[in-house]
Amino acid sequence: MDDLKIGVFVCNCGTNIAKIIDCDAVIDSVERLPYVAVARTYKYMCSDPGQDMIQADIEEYGLDRVVVAACSPRMHEPTFRKALQKAGLNPYFLEMANIREQCSWVHDDPVAATEKAAALTAAAVMRVAHHEALERRSVDMCPNTLVMGGGIAGMSAALDLADAGNRVYLAERSDHLGGNVARTDLTAPYLDSARDMLTERITRVVEHPNIDVLLESQVRKVDGFVGNFQTTIRGKADDGAPTDTVYDVGSVVVCTGYKEFDASRITHYGYGKLPNVVTSFEFEKMLRAGRVTTKEGKAPQYVAIIHCVGSRNLEFHAYCSRVCCMTALKYAHEVKSAVPGAYVSDIYIDMHAFGKGMEDFYRRSSEIKTLFLMYEKNDYPVIRKADATDDCDMLIEVNEILSGETIEMPADLVVLMVGMEAREDSEEVAHLVNISRDKDGWFIESHPKLDPVATTTDGVYIAGACQAPKDIPDSVAQARAAAARILARTARGKIEIDAVFSEVDEDKCSGCRMCNELCPYVAIEFDAEKRRSHVISALCKACGACVAACPSGAITARHFTDKQIFAELEGVLA
Amino acid sequence: MTFQPKIVGFLCNWCSYTGADLAGTSRIHYAPNVRIIRVMCSARIDPTFVLKALHDGADGVLICGCHPGDCHYSEGNYKMMRRYPLLKSLLADYGIEQERVRLEWVSASEGQRFADIVNDMTERVRALGPSPVKAALEADLAER
Amino acid sequence: MTTQISIDPITRLEGHGKIDIFLDDDGAVEDTFFQIPELRGFERFVVGRPIEELPRIVTRICGVCPASHHMASAKAVDGCFGGEVAPLAHKLRDMYYQAHFIHSHIAHFYALAAPDFVLGPDADPATRNVLGVVHKVGLEIGGAVIGSRSKAQEIQRIIGGRNTQDIWCLPGGVAKGLKPEELEQIRPWIDELYDFTQFSLQLFRDVVLGNAGYVDLIVNGPYTLDVHNMGVVDENNAPNFYDGTVRVVDYEGAEICRYKAEEYADFVAEHVESWTYLKFPYLKKRGWNGFVEGIDTSLYCATPLARLNVADRMATPKAQEAFEEMFTTLGGHPSRALLANHWARLVEMVQNAETLKRYCDDPEITGTEVRVVPQQVTGEGVGIVEAMRGTLTHHYTCDERAICTSANLIVGTTNNNAPIQMVTKKVASTLIKPGKEPDQGILNMIEMAFRAFDPCYSCATHSLPGQMPLQVDVFKGGGLYREFRRCC
Amino acid sequence: MADDKLQIAIYWGAACGGCDVSILDTDEFILCIDAAADILLWPIATDGKYKDIEALADGGLDVAIMSGAVRNSENERMAHLLRQKSKVFVAYGSCAYMGGIPSLANLVPREEIIARAYLNNASLEPGNTTVPRLRTSLNGYDLELPEFYARVYKLDQVVDVDYYVPGCPPQPGQAQAAITALVQALTGQAEAPPKGSVVGASERALCDDCKRTKAEEKKVKRFYRPWQIMQDPEACLMEQGILCAGSATRSGCGVRCPDSGIPCRGCYGPAPGVVDQGAKLLSAVASIIDSKDADEIDEILLTLPDFTSFANRYSVAASPLQRSHRR
After folding, report:
1. What is the pLDDT of residue C18?
2. D138 and chain C: CB distance < 8 Å anywhere?
3. Segments forming the whole domain that contains residue C469
4. Per-residue pLDDT tens for C346-357?
5. What are the CB-based long-range contacts (under 8 Å, 24+) for C338-341?
6. How far apart are the CA of B32 and the nearest CA of chain D, in angstroms?
7. Do B94 and D107 count as a contact with CB atoms less than 8 A apart?
């Protein structure tokens, strides 16, 4: 380590850093530190000229460690690592000092800010001296995929994977494919048949030589890691007895879908008490059967459709279920064709008509004499049985916003547009494949914008309404995106594993097993023969819990070693 | 001149460090006394880090992790939560005031909260004055 | 013009002490002070610890007699939990403690005392040590000494898991019992140890009693004090080391008092002098009367000889024979001949070995009911045992969570602090006279007075001992006149 | 004294004597030492000439073995002298290595120690107000007592130490092995271990040698103090909720305590490379607490009082923290 050469590059970030921090003073203070061979400032280190400067200095001074004092490492660490790599240095020989987000942007006293920036930069210099060259490693990728859920998303993912020549195990809890789409009649906005669309998919899936459809099956266990999962699936044997089968897969796509909101939870609507108050899914059933009637078997003269049942209110779900508005308009059309002359009133909060063709569809729907009534969030319309004298079965009292009046609407049939919510088994599923859920129970994607398909567990993907309420095109798009992600990897046949993980020094491990239980990724294995624990690096996510917990200091966190952190500590306190 | 305490902050990468970055992007100003060291998870924070920080001259140590239930590694912050009361009792027996070492949960969206914590802690530690560990180590040198 | 001699420290004693001898211009002893220059603080820093940890903390008061502190502490802790102890545990603790007595007495007699007799007080200091003794009496006997000591230690280890820095006692009993196979393993060793105690008695007869000069030195030398005796006895007034009643008998044989452990503070108090860290215990009811001898003195010895002085008889037959032989030779019971302490140790060893034999034949000894789980915290306990070097008292209090709130210790050697002061002066005055300059032999004779007590200043000061060189500087007219130095 | 014999000094600073006893406990081996070496100084067992030590040239001692910590100037003076005179200076035993049990006193102000001993306990002479003084003048004689440092130091806080032999006391077999290794190194029969090494101990923690079975599941809802429970003698003590320092403690003692049904308290010090034994034990304890609720965790920890005296039972002087008693 005596002949180390460290280069320090302090970024002005235009004036973002330089207007508060005296970057030259920072340079002066770190230049004196051991091993520092060159220290410079530049307007924008992340710019191409900035990176070129770093690479040139690596060449010229033979630098073997680099410190960049600039923005947050969460911003540009990858950028500068690449720069090192281009110059032939191991990318992990970089350390960044966060002197923008955590210094120049949060302090107004230039003296104190400069002092702090100098301390942070010095700490980075002292830390980087202890950095080790780390290599990313690659393991074989099993081309098979487990798809959980046989709905529209699951089938779409399965078909793309299978068409590319990979084996797919499609596990479905129920005894049929199709999921919630199989419960709908026509689809908005073009009013084409969900059934036709679905039948074509199901036939292809069932007949596909690369797809094993596992009906009435439950995934019991998912062991292993990306590219090498072992999944245990419980299905029915011929004699009907439950049997567990283990399938090796390289990836898992979770498409477990959603369940509809239980309308009886909103008392104002009398669902379950008033026979002619039905949910959207019950109404779809009528439509699929081709006869729209009241319980009494009469054709309804007045049909009312109430939006946002369980959605967009404080009491139940704050979120919008996204498909209901357009489905409601679809009903207006279907009622008109099923019961010519029937009056349709559409009671809504806001009309959400985003997405291709939807605004058109909204316009066309308003042309077919549908009465639109707008109500206030949380100010539920109230449904009651009509009096004998009335010519209708029920009366709906609505505080209509646009007119500002309280209006009483007649109704023979009321359709409640029930929202989507996470399935009750979503927690179980999340635990099974080790992914997280948000406060509403939807599975969390690894990045809400840039990576909406992957999860925090490498090799596990999510698609369809199990991630959030979605319509068919979005579900299919996400499903096929997941398939594409997987195919990109199977095509390479190998997957890279992060170079940062924890390691047990078996010469120090006493086999106390304190760490075994701690790992959330079950990455720590105990070898009963040797009486030693060791880390399965591909499973390790480098949180470092076991490192801090090991009572005999036998576990090391690569790139976050005690040595490195102690050096950083001495740096900030120097 | 008022005493400027040196405070070391150990922040988890996913919530708290990001929260501190957010304070920056939101231009929320706070006291310059905290020097942040990034770890991947609060579970990585070996109690030794805290002892070493105090030994090396820190007047206070701030530990931040994701809110319970929100850990990127699902349960890392609980591991830190279990160490904390033991750590406090150890420090108390060595005569170190409770307020010098503090565990706080800061999410990625709580830039303001992070700033408030830093300001509050800086004031409290400033009120306590320099760390007694420093005094003790100086006393040793004086004695021999 | 006063001349000051410092003897600093006294060698071959565990721990640390310093003697100042002041001579007048003629060179006669004016006064002597025996100083313990260290203090440790166990009594303070055990406060706040879980009370059950104390028996394994206070053993660090002394690494030479840790078992004594472990036992006294364990009994005090039992008291803090209401005192219920599995009956078998008492037997096992007693058995264990006998073994400890044996190896400690062997160590003292052969390593610390024997050099004075086997090699003689004025032998070359460089050879006057256990290795010197071994060279003199022969390697095979040296081997026997070392072998017997290690067997006694091994017995202790097999019974209680460790033979030093003991850990075995828990509130309500002990952590492990004695397995039948373990008993069979130690049984033959115990027989050998018994033989060795007989051998040691014979060696004492041959080497010491066979030498008229030594006998004269023991019986008629300056090594006597008119102070009283303290020791723990059983219901038959025979010595008991692990448990019993503390009995105090004056030097003419009359009982002054007897008390139970929990009454100790009514009968014993400690006087403080500002020139030494070690306190001076005395009989409380008589009050502190200074460093005076005589039938009215409040001072007492607590030594092997004192234990036999307060005892009417020994608890075992062979020990009884040795007891009678010794007091006959000394001219009656009780005796004030301090050097006879070495002999008394050998007599005690016989009782230790015989007691061990008894336990070997006790059918209950390998039972498994060795501990009861305490059901209550009563908050206070006093434990008294006989340590090799005298009566040892531990007194603790604790709160309802069984956390120690106070600790008070009166340690074996401390009991003898005042007598040691006085015998130092007595011997010095006899041996250092006008015209008779102090020399190495004289210095060692002074030390012999100490070694009779086998004082342990690790214990006594509960302090961090540290040996300093034995150094004698004789000053006259304020300048250095004669100089003797000897390490430790 | 033959020239080819090694010149050895064995000395104690602030110690209980147990370390010296552990050397005596090497039994016959002690005779071998005597044969191979001149023991110029060994307070507990031999008379030597202190003068000889002072008279030696620097490095004139081949080995100085010092047990005990440094509590006062005299301990320190001797440590410096022996260091100066010896080629190899060995810190022997837990006190020399880490401060040992006596350094628990570092958690307490010295004034309170004095008060407890002389002004405030059950058996003092009624009405006593006398406490020992550094200088007492008595009928014209000046009597002095040494002053103690405010706290206990481990040896290498005072002098440069070459090797450490841990243990309270070191297990005789280990002590013998360590001394033999050093003697062989000094006589060129073997390579010397690197300076600063811990000799006479294992490179792993105690669990490596402990026979008790260790399960993966180590979760407890409460802790038990050794007297509160009849333990399973086969199973890991920590799994039973009995605090045991074994997992954070270097092995080498022979597992004497856990084998006897008594939890380890850590006398052999931290595992190799560990900064503070207490911090590591802290992590181990935290790892087995079965709760995610801060209040419940506090509840559980009520069953584990005075954790500090377990964390640093033998190593308060070695802690990165040092208590200031200035008020």
Report:
1. 66
2. yes
3. 3-38+434-486
4. 999 999 999 999
5. C338/C223, C338/C224, C338/C225, C338/C301, C338/C303, C338/C305, C338/C423, C338/C449, C338/C452, C338/C453, C339/C217, C339/C218, C339/C221, C339/C223, C339/C448, C339/C452, C340/C218, C340/C305, C341/C303, C341/C304, C341/C305, C341/C452, C341/C453, C341/C454
6. 25
7. yes
